[in-house]
Amino acid sequence: MSAGIEAQHIPFRGPNEAFTEVLAGRIDFYFLPLAPALPLVKEGQLTALAVSSEQRATALPDVPTTTELGLKDSTYLFWTAVFLPAKTPRDIVNKLYDESRKALLVPAVQERIAKTGNEPMPMTVNEFDAFFKQDVRSTAKLMQQIGIKPEE
After folding, report:
1. What are 1-57's pLDDT values in tens digits?
2. Torsion angle of alpha carbons 6, 11, 16, 19, nearest 10°?
3. Less packed terminus of the chain by CB within 10 Å, N or C?
4. Separation of alpha carbons 143 and 102, rounded Å
5. Is pLDDT above 80 for 151?
6. What whole-number distance in Å separates Cα of residue 34 and Cα of residue 26?
7. SS3 (DSSP) at 91
């Protein structure tokens, strides 16, 4: 929307199907998390035009952010999280949080995450709850603005 271009939404089952279509020239572009695209970018099969994070991706430091390119309100994060059943006892939630946070500090884990193009965003349970709710609201608003309807 910030770029002022019109695009047709094409739902794919996953990145591999979309990559095939981009590489064959049947679609012009595809937005996705960096991890599945990074190997194809490094091999020169795909060109990364921009990243939608607030800062440049460590794995692609020469690729600008959409905001740097002048696209206002274009930050969009692709993220991964650990979810538990809502009734999980708080001591188990806290233990899993503590152990996950420790794991993110292990150099071998950091190296493996970096190789995939992902960047940790550790948050407390309360911080993630607020982040998640805001992400759902902003994604719903974006879908409404561009006319994407949820499948029933």
Report:
1. 788 888 888 888 888 899 899 999 999 988 888 888 899 999 999 999 999 999 999
2. -20
3. C
4. 36
5. no
6. 21
7. helix
Length of the chain: 152
- Quote the radius of gyration of the chain (alpha carbons, Å): 18
Residues 94 and 73 in one domain: no
**Residue 135 pLDDT grade (very low, low, confident, very high; cuts 50, 70, 90):** very high
Side chain identity at residue 107, one-letter code: P
DSSP annotation of 49 reads -
CA 125, CA 127: separation in Å to the nearest integer? 6
**Which residues constitute the domain of residue 62?**
1-77
Both 96 and 71 in one domain: the answer is no
